[in-house]
Structures are given as structure tokens and as C-alpha cells.
Amino acid sequence: MSDEPILEICDLSVDVGGQPYVRDLSLRVKRGQFHGLLGPNGAGKTTLLRVLYRALRPQAGEVRLHGRAQSEYSPIEWSRHVGALVQGGGLLAGLTPADIVEIGLTMRDIPCEKRREATQDALQLVGLQDKANQDAESLSGGELQRCYFAQLLACDPEVYVLDEPTNHLDLHYQLRLLDEVRRRGRTAIVSFHDLGLAARYCDTVHLMQEGRLVAEGMPEDVLTREVLYHHYRVDGVLEGHSLKLEGPVLDRTSPLQAAE
Ligand SMILES: Nc1ncnc2c1ncn2[C@@H]1O[C@H](COP(=O)(O)OP(=O)(O)OP(=O)(O)O)[C@@H](O)[C@H]1O
Questions:
Q1: pTM exceeding the 0.90 threshold for the entire prediction
Q2: Residues 6 or more apart in contact with residue 138 via CB below 8 angstroms
Q3: Is the predicted ipTM greater than 0.90, yes or no?
């Protein structure tokens, strides 16, 4: 596997409403690897991911894909390389799961005759084949998340940008859908709150705090007891893919004691 990054984030700063929410952040995403974006609420993970799928423009710095600046790609060209699963989703009025998947394929110029089959395959992958033609507004939260996942899997971009992809998903689908992205050998940059899942899937994790990158490396090297204590305010240790709590949850005023 080449060591060259497929995606590079260089000295990025992002303001929202005049406030700096990402500061001087640089990060290299390697081809075919799973990169986890970690950090407490408000750390800036979504803000950073929004730049990657072009929903936000940075105030400084740039994102490069295959060595070419994001600004040199047209939005359509960019979306053919970088696909996103975002928090919240879009308007559903009158749409079915099959429509939602097909809309993604249309945006990517997939020929009409291939769209139907690709849609069916993707809905099958996420276990929604029996609800393909139902009103999407009637889906449960998890079913809707699986529907958007199907849209992305059908398009199968070179880089998957996943913002809290396991939101609403039961354990079976959390594992099944992340396994599917891994099985495809695609590059992924994924925000996680579940540190066990991050440890299971990520080759590299990047820990954010207050808009800055504060640590990065292999999950077991980054997610030490000290890091959990300082950045998540929990006293725990990562054992394999599980987080084992050693003591009570800490509040903001708890004195930080040395981890044993
Ligand atoms: N449109 C906006 N207007 C004002 N503030 C915003 C806006 N979008 C984000 N922010 C602020 O930017 C900060 C970073 O938010 P962001 O959603 O990137 O964090 P996050 O790490 O993804 O958090 P979470 O884990 O809670 O999803 C937060 O303090 C948030 O309130």
C-alpha cells in the first residue's frame, strides 16, 4: 500500500458565525485506510467533515485530493470522488427509499439501465429491500440512516466521509455497514463517539479538542487512560475493542489525578 496520502488537510481554519471552530488543522488520510475523528461534543468534528464534503468553505488552508486542491475540482467532480453520510439527512416529502438511492446515482451520471439494479443491490445490503417503495417518512430513525447508507454504498465513492454513521443503528447494522465499507477497501474518514467501534475499525484515529488536533496514531496508542481522563472526563481503559470504566464519570470540576 502506498504511503502517499489520498487526501490531505493542510493548515485548515474554519469559522462559523465569526467563531473559530477549526484551528490550523493538518491531517493526512492514507489510501484504503479507516481514519477516525474523535473528540468530545463541540470539538469541531462535524465542522471539519463539512469542509470535506464542501458544505463549508475554510477561512484558511486547503484540502487536497490526489495532490490537487479542492477548489480546482467542480462540485460534481468532487462528489464523484468524495461521498458523505451526513447528520440529519434531507427532505423526504413523497420520496421512497428507492428514490433516495436513485437520486444519488443520478447525480453521479450512472446510466439509467444500471441504476435500478444498483438501487436494489444497495437496499438489499442495508436490509431495506422490502421497504424499497414505501414512503420514506414512515421509516424509523435507524431505517432512514440505513437508507442514506444505501445511497452512499450505491455510489461507492473513492473516499467515504461518515459523520457519526452509527447514529440510530442497532448493533447488527453498526457492524454490518462499517464491515461493508471496510470490505470494499475504500478510504474512510469517520467521526465516532463509540470508542470501542473506533478501536475496532480505525487504522488511525485523530483526536480533536476545541477545534485543534491534539493527538493522532493507532487507537490503542491514542486512547490511553490519561487521554480518556483529560479529553472525555471518564476514568476508563480500552481493552481490545471495549471501553472498561474504572470509576465514576467525572464532572468538570473533578481534579485530574494521575492515572495508575
Ligand atoms: N451553524 C453554526 N452556528 C453557530 N455555531 C456552530 C454552527 N455549527 C457549529 N457550530 C459550533 O461549532 C462547534 C463545533 O461544532 P461541531 O458540530 O463541529 O462539533 P462536533 O465535534 O461534531 O460535536 P458533536 O460531537 O456534538 O457532534 C460547536 O461549539 C457548535 O456549537
A1: yes
A2: none
A3: yes
